[in-house]
Amino acid sequence: xxxxxxxxxxxxxxxxxxxxLKSRTGEFDLESIMFLKLxxxxxxxxxCIGECMSLEKLDLSGNNISSLAPLASLRLLSVLGLSxxxxxxxxxxxxxxxxxxxxxxxxIISSIESLHCLQPLxxxxxxxxxDNTYNYTNPVxxxxxxxxxxxxxxxxxxxxxxxxxxxxxxxxxQLCKDIDxxxxxxxxKNGQLVEHPDCKPWVEDNYWEIxxxxxxxxxxxYKQFNDVLHECRLLNNRATHVISQTERSMSLKKQPKQxxx
Length: 261
Description:
The protein is α/β, with parallel strands linked by helices. The protein is built from 5 helices and 9 strands.
């Protein structure tokens, strides 16, 4: 009953309080909290969140937040999720000097000028202002030059709106996107979809099957994948061993003590 009552209280928390933070994290000291997930709780007042000075990752998605003022003191914050809120002013984030990943999709940011306060954040490399998966966006994204302007404003950006713009894969992504746009443009004539009954595949069967290649980049990626897979197997073996030891120790504790008379 108590756990159910706690869940009901969490479901509609208008203001972040010390009691809420301690109950969600199990920490007695707010400055000890490093990770915090407060999604979809109906929050509109960030309250004492600014006292979590050690906070590194914070998810506030799906609330009713409009003011970010308490976040100005979070200098160690590196990952911040604010999607699906009512945010229009980003000025308090200027002080979050460690910020690397920022999700603002589904808010009411209306102009490019609203993003200027983020320019001093030299570590910022991933910004999301729209998310097609959930149909989240911002009014600023309607600007036809929005993408180019944002990339010029933030030269260190590696990922914008979930699309990689720097590093391996970015050129390939852009090429595929250009091809898709060209194909889509050719499908319509005077606004009507043109049917092509005699269309045939333009590549042979099994063309897209993954094959080993001598390409150095692909070989390196293949090697890295195998290394990660090997590490996962080792971790799995260690976890299995720890679990078995824990179960064994717990079973021994449950055995009734025997006394010799």
